[in-house]
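Appendix B, example 12.
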Amino acid sequence: MPASAPYTSELAELLAPGVLERFLRYVRIDTQSARDGNGTPSTPGQFELARLLVAELHDAGLSDAAVDEHCYVTATLEPSQAVPGAPTIGLLAHIDTSPDAPGAGVEPLVHRGYGGGVIELPREGTRLDPEAMPELAPKNGHDIVSSSGDTLLGADDKAGMAEIMAAVAHLAAHPELPRSRIRVAFTPDEEIGQGPKLFDIGAFGALCAYTLDGSDLGFVEHESFSAIEAIVGIEGIDVHAGHATGKLVNALRFAAQMVAALPSDRLTPETTSGRDGFIHPYSIAGTPKHAEIRLILREFDEQLLEAEVALLKRVVDEVTAPEPRVRADVKLTEQYRNMRTYVEAAPFVLQAAEQAIRAEGIEPIHRPIRGGTDGSQLSARGLPTPNIFTGGNEYHSNREWASVHDMAAAAATVVRLAEVWAGHDGSDNGR
């Protein structure tokens, strides 16, 4: 069956070439964050992209664009034809990409006019198969961007970054278009939960903000997981293996027993969906002397998250109880909290996003994020920040892909969002 032409608005069609050009430029820069990095940003490559963004913002006319010593890029687009008292809104995307898949040497490929079926990528036998990726199946006629198959693409979140940049440049070049005052920010280290860590909300000066860090067309999200990282450290006793009888206490074996003792038919990423949470061990390493398990715990409900913590601690205690010589501790780090309560306290913030998406000819789709964004932490800190789609899919893997048509629709949604807020006088403070 020949590919059919996907729906696109005139505005999205106008923005598409610029969005794609920027996106292809950004993904070639290695900005992977590092979980064990020292300082912010956790990797120096993030500064390379930050400096490029500042230069492009200056070229677009945002003269105050700057990057600080921690790699936070900020800039201001002043209002045009806004109603008196129209508030300042923020637009955010993150600079870093995930450390979960190779991120250096990205070579993006553009597959024009996708006609359905499997897309065979040239490296490592990677395939984009619509039977395994239901989001790909309806993209007939779309231009699809992928990596070459041996790295991630970086659509998370360079798609969002390209969309914001294209939209802001378009608004700056067309002062006749109504817009509120817009503050732009690009943050480091979102993928390791550190994006808002040093973000100065007061200096940013926005009533609310929107992250462009979502996925498929039309999605707008205001509910995220609450998230905890757990690191289980296990101390054993190491001796020569040939003389270990009655002496060796192998920390690695205890680590393996702990992972095996966690539920495998429930509370795992591969067995849950919707609003079900999970305990996910993503790294196990060490020696007989010392081993370490890293896990992420996720739930939408705080009480259920506490139950997951209790379950993990109980497993650690039960596995180590028969051997008094082994030592184990559980270190917990809160990463972010469900942003729903904070966003729902400011209802017009979400309504504005819905209006903008509908103005682009798309029906908004609501769903909880099975993950988190910078907005999760920022909302909890007082800046309500829902999440808007970007057109990317299969994040954190070498199967990552993005639709150019959907990316352009996201950029057009940003332009329309600026107009929605230009007509809002801020009298109810967005709440």
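The radius of gyration is 23 Å. The longest strand covers residues 226-235.
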